[in-house]
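INFO  loader      accepted 1 record
INFO  loader      residues=291
INFO  predictor   begin
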Amino acid sequence: MQLDPKVLMTIKDLQLLAKTVVDGFMNGFNKSTMKGPGLEFSQYRSYQPGDDLRWLDWKMYARSDRYYIRESETETTISVRFLIDASASMNHNDNGIKKIDYARFLAASLAYLANLQGDSVGLYTLTNGGLFSMASKPDPQHLQRLFYQLDKIEPGGKFTQPIHYKELFAGTGRKELLVFITDMYQENKEISNLLESLAALGHEIILFHLMGKNELEFNFRGYGALEDLETGETIAINTDQARKQYQETLGNHLAQIRMELLGKRIFYRMISTAQPLDEALRDFLVQRNKG
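INFO  predictor   done
INFO  writer      dumping tokens
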């Protein structure tokens, strides 16, 4: 399957990877009979005989070799800013896929998709207590720079400190969507506090919470202890004994996060790094076209 992260690990060029993911998604979407609110492809639908050719989107045809009709006469380009958590815990590895790799694949694919629609894209990497920022622009050269910076990310240290948040709060003056990709690992509610501040500014926010399948299933067979990637602390484990309690605690924890973010009007999606990227692309399009 084209969007499977294990397959994507074999593609070393991020632009090719993003194109592979988006083309696979669009083809699958085109064949899908699934209907529902907000599932339209960014106000596009497949061309039907008799449609007014003035609304054919030639740029989409050139990219996908398929005909799409733009259903809205209004230009709806927005600014999409990607916030990547690159603290040390994003080095978590499950079956050869690190969370940061999945974050890279996801951000590259969503940026490629956004750029196809004429949106501006920007990148903000929260790493080692600091912040790398690249303001959003719509041109293809800027997208190349974004791919380059995504490729360079090396997770380390703890989550970024509030002193560096100023650029995250600065709006672009146009409709924008913040896409935050994180593992939600926090010691003192630092991620929750940042999200609260961003939501208070009226930003539309979609949060992708990445977790390894081994975390979700507590599948750490062969390990006698687990290490905290950010603090270096280790705890002894008895997997069989602890699994049931762990999964119950995790379920409550995820439900609490979901409710907390819902209260801030933030769209939340927990994704396993073993999952294909399809659902994340759908979620992105639904949020992008709100309002």
